[in-house]
Amino acid sequence: MNQILSTDSMPPPRLGPEGDLRRIRSNPDFWYPVAWSRELKPGKTIGVRYAGQPIALIRPKEGDVFALEDRCAHRQVPLSKGQVTGQSVQCCYHGWAYGRSGRCIDVPYLGKGKLPNGVRTYPCREQDGLIFVFPGDAAKAETVPLPHLSQVANPAYKTRRFGRHVKCHYSFMHENLMDMNHQFMHMKQMGQMKPRFLGQDSGPGMIEARYTFARTGGKQPIGEALVFGQKRDNSAKYAHRDVMTIRTEYPYQTLKIQSEGEDPVMDLWIAYVPQDAEELTNRVFGLLSIKRPKIPGLLDAAWPFLVAFTERIFREDREIVELEQAAWNELGGDHNQEVFPVIQNLRALLARCGIPAGAES
Amino acid sequence: MNQILSTDSMPPPRLGPEGDLRRIRSNPDFWYPVAWSRELKPGKTIGVRYAGQPIALIRPKEGDVFALEDRCAHRQVPLSKGQVTGQSVQCCYHGWAYGRSGRCIDVPYLGKGKLPNGVRTYPCREQDGLIFVFPGDAAKAETVPLPHLSQVANPAYKTRRFGRHVKCHYSFMHENLMDMNHQFMHMKQMGQMKPRFLGQDSGPGMIEARYTFARTGGKQPIGEALVFGQKRDNSAKYAHRDVMTIRTEYPYQTLKIQSEGEDPVMDLWIAYVPQDAEELTNRVFGLLSIKRPKIPGLLDAAWPFLVAFTERIFREDREIVELEQAAWNELGGDHNQEVFPVIQNLRALLARCGIPAGAES
Amino acid sequence: MNQILSTDSMPPPRLGPEGDLRRIRSNPDFWYPVAWSRELKPGKTIGVRYAGQPIALIRPKEGDVFALEDRCAHRQVPLSKGQVTGQSVQCCYHGWAYGRSGRCIDVPYLGKGKLPNGVRTYPCREQDGLIFVFPGDAAKAETVPLPHLSQVANPAYKTRRFGRHVKCHYSFMHENLMDMNHQFMHMKQMGQMKPRFLGQDSGPGMIEARYTFARTGGKQPIGEALVFGQKRDNSAKYAHRDVMTIRTEYPYQTLKIQSEGEDPVMDLWIAYVPQDAEELTNRVFGLLSIKRPKIPGLLDAAWPFLVAFTERIFREDREIVELEQAAWNELGGDHNQEVFPVIQNLRALLARCGIPAGAES
């Protein structure tokens, strides 16, 4: 009989007591980006999502953005379809109005003494072109810091903002980026680059993997050349000089490429924000910073190539993680057979920092 | 902590023992419109729906329309794909034939003595361009009257027939029309019109709300001018002269605009017919009658403007009730916080006249 | 009261202990076609399905096609997205490689001593332009013969290969073809052809029905004339001369038209391969062989007409069986009222040869 142990008879996932990693919900007690600043004009409101919760972001003509539950207390239609007046938003349907605190401050056809309950408000911050909310326990928002967005504010770097909706659990995104053996998949874009794993590090809520790469075939693509600022020699003395460090610092992720003692040539900050209640889709917010080379204007001129290059890479990654999610859906659970220790540790970290499904308060 | 009571922790709906209004099924012991007469040519058949029941309407070349269950007794394919011959319809697949009573009158390859059971028949009537069926207990059809279709047959009025499929429970439609505070939503189309609630009336199976309107800003739109037959003065002496009366006379709804002692300038009859078995979609059949002004031909000339105007209004209404339904789906139930007494009474009426889900015989 | 027994109150299906025919799963201990040979080029791989099982077909540049479970053992993404190298396929994501036996033979970043389990392999054969797999107990594959594909290899015939995905349980396909009373449905294409049932035969795993046809109206269509090789006279002496024999030889079906003592003028072999796990969709693989007339080149010249004719017939059949499936979905089960004995026997055969849902090992 020519059958080998199939996935159908595979043992359950190795997470131990944590259960199926794809059923672990993101921990809401962090600041999550939910929109780019440029998406929300003064005097306007837009609707966004975190883990199935609809959130209205409101930017008054004067003053900071604020965030309310995106369901009118009256009939649950989106407040983000409404009108911004001063420091309040008025529901488009019957005109109920809410202030920054979520309190209902006017029902046009009702006495002021009878005003009904309002809606939930979310702590909200804006920084470096991103709007963040704190979907968890609002009392903790003051003590949990906003993430540091790498080189975004550093004039020595040029930053690309990118992102898409991806139809998978956020954990697939973390694993994809940290396991550089998936370089195999990008061979057409990158040529044959053999990763060498240098080691890992971990701390509370953090894990980091380090790699070098040697080109074993193919030409260096122009997009990659731009990242490194120069066309590298393929000879042995240059191989393994640049170190790539990928770090999950829950719930964010970063990837840096740098030579010892030098500033990173590339510095990526990225977050995967669950969209639906089951957290099987996510919206990506990525900030890709490239160190400006010495020749002024060179990076700007070459920017369209870099954009196209990174888009192609990102499309391949998106396709594969969505296929992983589709397999999970079909099999009704996680059948991964993970053999790479740093990814095993990453999975344990994500399970430990998240919330098991059904355990939400 | 800056959180206010959210919908997640809201109390359940206030219907009391009736439960969730959106789970109340329509009462089948009424005449429901299911098609426009013009949709069904002589010698043809079409398929329609009431609350998940597929119904074949058959119009013989001579004689009245009749209505059968739209599933052949043999293999359950739609009879409405078949051929009309005399006073019968023949299934398109193997040619089984059914008469007006639903009885199977021929199977081409079977002896007449062995004919199988037939299909259900529905009482069916046609009036003023609408085809009605009685989906409930057929024994009651004789005693339950067809609805009176307002001014449709009155030559002093011109009537527009309109309708669409709308993805919401029929109760959202009744509430939308009766709560004229939603005038706020149509501000772009109508200008600022402030409704004043004059009072309500009720009876068995009936509830009625009366309003006047004062224009508080913006210009009178041409569509509205047509309805009122003349451009009204905005001064105080004209304000609050026209009365709008909205009535749910289960399961239909009407809206009239008239001045005391005069005929209505506008008279709308409308029905919302559940399509799927869970009754979370409906098909609208609306008859909008406008009184002809004294100048002959004026209304006909202006008709395209009125059509466009009412289409825009209806589109806004459709979008908002579909958003209400979407919120109900996401929340898994009704979280409405209704504060307007006439709407509270309307909800109680709809619950009382309908059938709780699961209670069907 | 003008109501007749409706399908809602119909008795359950007549299959007796077998239960609902549409819940009977196909028996996997047979050879099923899963792709046309021309779909799979040398050095390539494609993904196909049998009853919810994803299967990668791999054709090395040299050697026979082989078939593996289409999920990498690592992260369950499709191997059919990978690369064929020699006699193995390498997963596109992290480069895990599998040989013909399904064994994992390389993980580029892991020592050879630590190789993980591989994936399931399926017995696989290729014959006359079709690729078959044996999805059941592989130990039985040697003793279960491949089906005989009628006249495909016979130079006296020209064969059309056709097929589509059809959204219904495979049993509807068998019943459709065997019940020639459905000729009624093809009246527009074929003219009025009255079938006469001659008799049936059965054996283990087999049932056969025989018919003749008399033209009772309309002209013989050109497509049909081609099948019969000549334009037949409509007079009585020709009527009922050709015999049509339809046979289900589980799980395949054939249809032959021939006169006594002559070779068939038409010989169809057809299989319906379940695609999804619930087997409510199938992919058709049909081989339609037409005997070449004596005039050389005539059939080739007329071929486009025959293709168009059979496409129209097949489209009508597809539409009706999909409507049958839709009715079954809505009613939540089989309400067929089958009156034709040979079809009753066919249903019993399909139930007996298949596997009741839930009974899979």
Automatic annotation (TrEMBL), chains A, B, C:
<keyword id="KW-0223">Dioxygenase</keyword>
<feature type="domain" description="Rieske">
    <location>
        <begin position="31"/>
        <end position="133"/>
    </location>
</feature>
<protein>
    <submittedName>
        <fullName>Aromatic ring-hydroxylating dioxygenase subunit alpha</fullName>
    </submittedName>
</protein>
<keyword id="KW-0001">2Fe-2S</keyword>
<keyword id="KW-0411">Iron-sulfur</keyword>
<dbReference type="GO" id="GO:0046872">
    <property type="term" value="F:metal ion binding"/>
</dbReference>
<dbReference type="InterPro" id="IPR036922">
    <property type="entry name" value="Rieske_2Fe-2S_sf"/>
</dbReference>
<dbReference type="InterPro" id="IPR017941">
    <property type="entry name" value="Rieske_2Fe-2S"/>
</dbReference>
<keyword id="KW-0479">Metal-binding</keyword>
<dbReference type="Pfam" id="PF19112">
    <property type="entry name" value="VanA_C"/>
</dbReference>
<keyword id="KW-0560">Oxidoreductase</keyword>
<keyword id="KW-0408">Iron</keyword>
<dbReference type="InterPro" id="IPR050584">
    <property type="entry name" value="Cholesterol_7-desaturase"/>
</dbReference>
<dbReference type="InterPro" id="IPR044043">
    <property type="entry name" value="VanA_C_cat"/>
</dbReference>
<feature type="region of interest" description="Disordered">
    <location>
        <begin position="1"/>
        <end position="20"/>
    </location>
</feature>
<dbReference type="Pfam" id="PF00355">
    <property type="entry name" value="Rieske"/>
</dbReference>
<dbReference type="GO" id="GO:0051213">
    <property type="term" value="F:dioxygenase activity"/>
</dbReference>
<dbReference type="GO" id="GO:0051537">
    <property type="term" value="F:2 iron, 2 sulfur cluster binding"/>
</dbReference>
